[in-house]
Design brief:
The protein has 266 residues and is of the alpha/beta class. Helix content is 27%, strand content 20%. The two termini are 30 Å apart. It binds S-adenosylmethionine.
Length: 266
């Protein structure tokens, strides 16, 4: 038993520590104990992960992973289990980060967890082979900016993305341009649309924008992420590509605060 694991047990039983750190959104299995056995979505996020785990490279040896909105670290820890050399999980909520660090200690998996909003990813000053951006987009007041920042500053190759979706599942082929008087396209169910939540959705005041499927796909494309697969309804595996710089200049509006250009994590 490692000294860290030993000290955890000295401060109280594993079960007591798990209860003290709760409530948990991620149902992890720590020392055989489930952290959120009564989750409203079932055995979450394992049931979701089981539907798309096959699209993620099984061997991440030598690769770096950034998990944005890592919560209690389910995906960060899973990526470390796939052999990733460096995994960094970031989140704004210190309560979830405490859970994640605890889970790292109990499992003995070497994952770094840091308090940082997606808005500050430029400060990391490095790019990652795999960026995970699951379940965060609709919690943001400025969702497209987040995708632009990820593209501009931290993604190198793969993006694993998920967003809650509402509205039509249809996807219309958007035209390259529309006449000023063309109003009908916007009423098509499959035209890209975001639903603004002024107050609450599902009793949660942090839900701000819920896109339909066409909108998710258009936002990813527009931010420079090519969709390679959609293993389940809400989940996309994308690949980074350069964005076409519009004639009036690059569209990212939130430059790095730290001086200097991005360094490599190695
Ligand atoms: C619905 S949970 C998703 C957790 C995990 N990524 C998953 O898919 O299971 C959303 C997470 O995003 C975090 N979050 C919300 N706003 C954020 C922001 N601006 N930057 C980074 N994380 C944020 C929340 O604290 C929460 O842990």
């Amino acid at each position: 038993m490692s000294s860290i694991q030993h000290s955890l047990i000295e401060e109280g039983s594993l079960e007591e520590r798990i209860i003290t750190l709760g409530p948990w959104f991620h149902n992890l299995r720590l020392g055989g104990i489930q952290t959120a056995p009564d989750h409203f979505l079932g055995d979450y996020p394992l049931i979701k992960y089981n539907r798309f785990r096959n699209v993620i490279p099984a061997d991440l040896s030598g690769k770096s992973v950034l998990d944005i909105g890592c919560n209690a670290g389910f995906y960060s820890l899973e990526m470390k289990c796939r052999g990733a050399a460096y995994v960094l999980g970031i989140d704004t909520d210190e309560r979830y980060l405490r859970q994640a660090r605890f889970a790292g200690q109990v499992t003995g998996l070497d994952v770094e967890f840091r308090r940082m909003p997606v808005w500050d990813v430029a400060d990391l000053g490095e790019r990652f082979d795999l960026v995970i951006f699951m379940g965060v987009l609709y919690h943001l007041r400025h969702p497209l900016l987040a995708l632009d920042l990820i593209h501009e500053h931290v993604a190198r190759d793969l993006l694993l993305f998920q967003s809650m979706q509402r509205g039509s599942h249809e996807v219309v082929m958007v035209a390259g341009d529309y006449d000023f008087n063309a109003r009908a396209p916007f009423d098509e169910p499959g035209y890209p649309k975001m639903h603004f939540i002024e107050h609450r959705y599902s009793h949660d005041e942090t839900n701000w924008w819920v896109p339909n499927r066409a909108c998710v796909e258009a936002m990813l494309r527009s931010s420079g992420f090519v969709i390679e697969s959609q293993p389940e309804d809400e989940v996309y595996l994308c690949r980074w590509q350069p964005v076409d710089v519009p004639p009036d200049g690059p569209h990212c509006v939130y430059p790095a605060k730290a001086a200097g250009k991005a360094k490599d994590w190695r």
